[in-house]
Amino acid sequence: MISKVKKAQILSLLSSGRRVDGRGLEEYRPVKVETDVIGRADGSARVSVGDTIVLAGVKYEVGQPFLDTPDQGALAVNAEFLPLASPTFEPGPPDENVIEAARLIDRGLRRSLALDLPKLCLIPGKSVWIAWVDLYALNHDGNLVDALSLAASAALQTSKMPVAKVEEERVKVSYEDKVPVRLAELPVTVTIAKIGSTLVVDPALDEEEAADARLHVSVVSGKLCAMQKVGEGSFEVEELHRAVGIALKKAEELKKHLEALRQGGGGG
Amino acid sequence: MAQGQLITPEGVRRDGRRLDELRPMELSVGVLKNANGSAYVRQGNTKILAAVYGPRSVHPRHLAYPDRARLRCRYHMAPFSVEVRKSPAPSRREVELSKVIREALSQAVMVEQFPFTAIDVFVEVLEADGSTRCAGINAASLALADAGIPMRDLVAACAVGKVEGHLVVDLTDLEDKSCEVDMPFAVMYGKRKVTLLQLDGQLSPEEFVKAVDMAMASCGKIYHMQKEALKRRHLALRRKVEGEPS
Predict the structure, then answer these.
(1) Domains and CATH numbers, chain A
(2) Which residues fall within 8 angstroms of residue A133, CB to CB, at 6 or more apart?
């Protein structure tokens, strides 16, 4: 919920091209990515976008393949909007917003083809690697999706897998020595909010609540790989194309944080 | 599936359709007596039943909004609607689809006319052969109109996909299973306002422009059929009231 006064202020500033926190319409808040922040995880990342803070942890586990893909490993994305992250989050089973965010990020990762799932098969039909990506919101100040998506990609990119050996139809896993995971380019997600008739990138919490609708756009290698319109409002076709254009441009900027990790740097 | 199995070099699909051709559709309105509004939509073998109850009182009452109706939506698949029996318990997919369908319809419904009430939309997939969320929106939109709830426009929905390198509309389950891209799309067609857009799969920026064009064109056809279905229903009702043989 947002007060009418606050919403009116956001709209009146936007009508002259300005935002409440002084940013440009297509400007992100400061983005920070740290990796290897949880020693027990096989990969982890803490991402902040302004005051929004999230944590992603990757765990590789040997398990059974899905029925329809017996010779492929699996990717499982799960999100938790912890009650400690916002006064509006409550304990309990994940609600529709959490499920939607997790499924959107899952689609982006899956469709980026970054993970070679057939290679994660150990014994067809019996044992495969499952990459568990668990996403935590720690402080909610809007645009959790972009932060979570970046954290998921950063954690996967810097993850190391335990080594599995197949001996006489049995899988033996050694957690002692881990090896880096071979991955193709991972996706980033850019969120564009439509407030009144203005499109803004990276909506902060108040802007998110004042928005008619949002468009989440996941991008990999200059292509769109997942999208979702969220919220009760609508986009005109011209606005959709404009939003996608902005997203493709901003994705290049976000991608640099992942490229920095690839070159061996930890921070950024 | 090997290249060329689903679409011939001439651009003909397994069921004989062209790339931009919809499956045969059947739309009927007012099919359930108890509901305030209802509709049945068949797109090929995809069969959807939608019912609307409301505006009615909200329970528990704290869920009511003081300035508008609360639109609620439940998308659900029958256990026998798919190849392998689906548990009737709501899956994560159904939770997400219930949300996106609600958000696809909400701008069309004049909720501000019914404060403190709920409008419940139930979308039941009786048989699933691809594009169920879009067929569900097509049915739900008709059911809302049938319930006599004031609306800004009808919402028409259609999925565009990429199969074996071709952009196609209204995917079947077979096409959906091996498609590179699935892009469900819904629009208040008369107002040209896009109320649902999802993308699952890789599209270049140029392909996206083409996909949106194809989706808009298909939604235009569906929108026309929705209006015809409503007209048929109203003519039938009028004949009944005026006592003419129907």
Answers:
(1) 21-262 (3.30.230.70)
(2) A56, A57, A58, A75, A76, A77, A78, A105, A106, A109, A152, A155, A156
